[in-house]
């Protein structure tokens, strides 16, 4: 049973994570370590993280769809692919204690993503999303990122945004907005599986879901306004910090 002070901390952390996830992805870098500090096992921390984090990404996606900034029609079938991949990743986490290759590969991928955002000049004009054309490698990337999100998760929003820029040529704002659909689908898939498991700390989830929703609403207001200027540095910082955290866990343990 968690102490009441931990629940207060969880709520505050969820609010911040909801904002960061909406703007750049990487909120799990904050929430997962806090769960571990509170005494949750690694598997319980990851499952609990998904069962509270889905509320923020789903809220952000629905808000952006309602405002007309996120066009659902061209992407819904790709979102279903991400959903299925995440479901498989969550099942793998539930059935396996860990993955040797994944733990050592993800930090490298996140560092590459950070370098990409830091060094590559991104489109400045707003793009229209009409008929997205994903080649085979793009579809495989959706599957890989979806699996990763179901299995672990931190940095998924940034990776999906990077994919939208690379494959569709969207600018940073548009890519970040449309990545919310994929992130919401992968988080919802993991939630669908973990909600039936005994890994979830439900007292933490109960206080964190409202905070995640508030954080997502704040984040969407920022991303549709001047807050987009924070996306590039947030993506770089969150990818780098996540990579450092994962690399230290995988290589120095």
- Overall mean pLDDT score? 80
Percentage of β-strand residues: under 5%
What structural class do you assign from the helix and strand content? mainly alpha
**First-last Cα distance:** 28 Å
Poorly predicted tracts of residues: none
Estimate nothing, just give the exact number of structural domains.
1
Number of helices: 10
Rg over alpha carbons: 17 Å
Helical proportion, percent range: over 70%
What is the β-strand count? 0
Q: How would the global form be characterised?
A: globular
Sheet with the most strands? Answer: none
| Element-level helix/strand string | HHHHHHHHHH
Q: In a few lines, what is going on in this structure?
A:
The chain has 253 residues and is an all-alpha fold. 75% of the residues lie in helices and 0% in strands. The protein has helices spanning 4-23, 28-37, 42-66, 76-95, 100-119, 136-151, 156-168, 172-194, 202-224, 231-251.
Describe this structure in words.
With 253 residues, the protein is mainly α. It has one domain. It has ten helices and no strands. Helix 1 runs parallel beside helix 9, helix 4 crosses helix 6 and helix 4 crosses helix 8. The radius of gyration is 17 Å and the shape is globular. The two termini are 28 Å apart. The relative contact order is 0.23.
List keywords for this structure.
mainly alpha, 10 helices, 253 residues
Secondary-structure map with pairings?
Layout: H1 4-23, H2 28-37, H3 42-66, H4 76-95, H5 100-119, H6 136-151, H7 156-168, H8 172-194, H9 202-224, H10 231-251
Helix pairs in contact: 1-2, 1-3, 1-9, 2-3, 3-8, 3-9, 4-6, 4-8, 5-10, 6-7, 6-8, 7-8
């Amino acid at each position: 049973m968690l102490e009441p002070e931990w629940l207060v901390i969880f709520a505050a952390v969820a609010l911040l994570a909801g904002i960061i996830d909406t703007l750049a992805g990487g909120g799990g870098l904050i929430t997962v370590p806090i769960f571990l500090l509170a005494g949750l096992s690694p598997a319980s921390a990851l499952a609990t993280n998904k069962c509270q984090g889905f509320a923020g990404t789903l809220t952000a996606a629905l808000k952006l769809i309602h405002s007309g900034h996120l066009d659902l029609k061209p992407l819904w079938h790709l979102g279903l692919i991400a959903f299925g991949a995440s479901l498989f990743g969550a099942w793998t986490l539930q059935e396996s204690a860990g993955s040797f290759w994944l733990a050592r590969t993800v930090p490298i991928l996140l560092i590459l993503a950070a370098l990409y955002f830091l060094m590559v000049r991104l489109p400045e004009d707003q793009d229209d999303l009409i008929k997205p054309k994903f080649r085979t490698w793009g579809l495989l990337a959706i599957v890989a990122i979806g699996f990763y999100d179901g299995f672990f998760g931190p940095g998924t929003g940034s990776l999906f945004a990077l994919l939208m820029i690379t494959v569709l040529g969207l600018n940073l704002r548009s890519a970040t907005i449309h990545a919310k659909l994929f992130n919401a689908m992968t988080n919802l898939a993991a939630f669908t599986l973990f909600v039936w498991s005994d890994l979830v700390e439900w007292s933490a989830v109960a206080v964190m879901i409202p905070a995640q929703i508030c954080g997502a609403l704040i984040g969407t207001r920022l991303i549709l306004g001047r807050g987009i200027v924070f996306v590039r540095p947030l993506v770089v910082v969150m990818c780098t910090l996540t990579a450092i955290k994962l690399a230290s866990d995988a290589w120095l343990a």
